[in-house]
């Protein structure tokens, strides 16, 4: 009996991997084969996968932060900026605008954006810089978005640091 249970357990683990039933309908082995060998490693040169297209379609629009968007040193509430805001505008053509600041200062950056091949990151390339910035998508559902800004450079003290920031679609 123990041997039979072990056999059934192994079959249950192996059969989904063989049949690719664990992949969503948009990402079958046939779909992913189309892109093998075509990716130069540059975001701009890679054809968009079904995952990227779905995430990109969900991202298009204006996203406004719903919590204090900037890093706070040592948890000091005095360091908070009055009227702080962070807003992303993602266009379908691959361009973006990010606006951030507070009641006294306002900054704007624009450039091009893309979704990583696995659909888990946004890659930003500002118009006035060759540097790419990566933002991790922690959650995306309808009009709710959570981003982790670990690799983003902004004017200090308006850097989110490595904290997660909640957004809603305007």
Description:
The protein has 170 residues and is an alpha+beta fold. It has a single domain, classed as Lipocalin (Beta Barrel), CATH 2.40.128.370. It has three helices and eight strands. The protein has helices at residues 2-19, 29-33, 50-59, and strands spanning 61-65, 85-90, 95-101, 106-115, 121-126, 132-141, 144-151, 164-169. Strands 1-2-3-4-5-6-7-8 form an eight-stranded antiparallel β-barrel. The longest helix has 18 residues, at 2-19. It is globular and about 55 Å long. The protein starts with a helix and ends with a strand. The model is unreliable at 13-43 (pLDDT under 50).
Largest sheet: 8 strands, antiparallel, barrel
Shape: globular
CATH-derived topology? Lipocalin
Q: State the end-to-end CA separation.
A: 59 Å
Task: Fill in the keyword field for this structure.
single chain, 170 residues, alpha+beta, 8 strands, 8-stranded antiparallel beta barrel, Lipocalin
Concise account of the structure shown:
With 170 residues, this protein is α+β, with helices and mostly antiparallel strands.
Break the fold down into its secondary structure elements and pairings.
Layout: H1 2-19, H2 29-33, H3 50-59, E1 61-65, E2 85-90, E3 95-101, E4 106-115, E5 121-126, E6 132-141, E7 144-151, E8 164-169
Antiparallel strand pairs: 1-2, 1-8, 2-3, 3-4, 4-5, 5-6, 6-7, 7-8
């Amino acid at each position: 009996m123990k041997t039979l249970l072990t056999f059934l357990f192994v079959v249950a683990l192996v059969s989904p991997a063989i049949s690719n039933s664990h992949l969503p309908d948009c990402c079958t082995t046939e779909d992913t084969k189309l892109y093998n060998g075509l990716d130069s490693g540059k975001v701009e040169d890679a054809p968009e996968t079904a995952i990227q297209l779905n995430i990109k379609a969900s991202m298009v629009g204006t996203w406004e932060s719903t919590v204090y968007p900037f890093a706070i040193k040592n948890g000091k509430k005095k360091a908070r900026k009055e009227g702080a805001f962070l807003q992303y505008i993602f266009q379908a053509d691959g361009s973006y605008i990010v606006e951030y600041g507070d009641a006294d200062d306002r900054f704007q950056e624009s450039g091009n954006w893309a979704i990583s091949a696995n659909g888990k990151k946004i890659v930003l390339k500002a118009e006035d810089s060759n540097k790419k910035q990566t933002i991790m998508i922690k959650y995306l559902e309808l009009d709710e978005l959570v981003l982790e800004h670990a690799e983003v450079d902004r004017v200090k003290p308006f850097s989110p640091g490595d904290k997660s920031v909640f957004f809603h679609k305007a």
